[in-house]
Amino acid sequence: MEKTALVLGGGGFIGGHMGKKLKEEGFDVRVVDIKPKHEFWDHTIICDEYVVGDLRDPKVVEKIMAPIDGEKPFDEVYQLAADMGGAGYIFTGENDANVMHNSAMINLNVAYEASRQKVKRVFYSSSACMYPEHNQLDPDNPNCEESSAYPANPDSEYGWEKLFSERMFLAFNRNYNLEVRIARFHNIFGPMGTWTGGKEKAPAAMCRKAAETPDGGELEVWGTGQQTRSFLYIDECVEAVLRFMRQENFTGPVNIGSEEMVTINELAQMAISLSGKDIRIKNIDGEEFLGKYGFPCPVGVMGRNSDNTLYHKKMDWSVSQPLKTGMKHTFEWINEQVKALQPQN
Q1: What is the domain-level CATH number for residue 174?
Q2: 3-state class of 162 per DSSP?
Q3: Per the residue annotation, which of 124, 158, 233, 311 is the catalytic one?
Q4: Alpha-carbon gap, residue 163 to 161, rounded angstroms
Q5: Structural domain count, the chain
Q6: Which of 94, 118, 230, 319 shows a CA-CA span of 20 to 30 A to 144?
Q7: Active site residue 158
Q8: Residue 35: which residues within 8 A CB-CB, separation 6 or more?
Q9: 54 and 169 both lie in a single domain
Q10: What is the tens place of the pLDDT at every residue in 15-64?
Q11: 280, 155: one domain
């Protein structure tokens, strides 16, 4: 009998790629999202059934968690749905209530219904944002080892909600034998994702700015640009998730990310180099930023890098693609999006 998979948030970036991969593997895939369709893919590429539904509603979750064939519970459920975005959405403080309420409601419903309907296994996508702020003050030596999560002190309400939901899924695992796998994502990027509008992540933002900025112009980077991060290309993220999801002995939480740490200025310069233009980096901070955008400069923690020691130990597999390769694919795709929106002569 054909295996079945449910991808929650499948109309989004990571969910779309996950649905596409599962469909290629021969799964019967149901995707659920509050959006009427994936922004860039026809639904037939990412799933067999696309359901528009609000996962904050328990009745919706009860309905969509029901088996595709009416009998056998889902083999694999991927809980990727959340209210989230880049620094301009998460760190201004203006969206904190919505971020916490919407994501928590989704996770409460999913954990309960997955347990009640006895799905075989659930993957929950947590985030590196749940790591303590005090371990990420030094841009050269951040500590994001899984065991460093407590005492807890995330730098955003988004991170606090992720930490709460980790603990909730683990509680359902202990009390109701819900098979869960929990991973903390570190800045996943690539084509077919949000690249403009305020919710885009740093790699997409840098690629868009480099594509839009004329030769001889300047590209704005929020903050000093010395903040450090690591970024994982979407194909390797999907591979890492599937390997983790399908092994039998390890629940997590575990990091899924790259250990190639760069400064935000270096990320911007990478995008500029890929554009082939002569563009200057302009760091914008403090009062200058406040005057231009109307809210304090959101830069997040000063240092964050995935520690993959535990994942490698448990999975015997490591990500291998250098950041520049993924940035090249991403820039080429975003550059085409930018060109398509420009007036034709």
Answers
A1: 3.40.50.720
A2: helix
A3: 158
A4: 5
A5: 2
A6: 94
A7: yes
A8: 11, 12, 52
A9: yes
A10: 999 999 999 999 999 999 999 999 899 999 999 999 999 999 999 999 99
A11: no
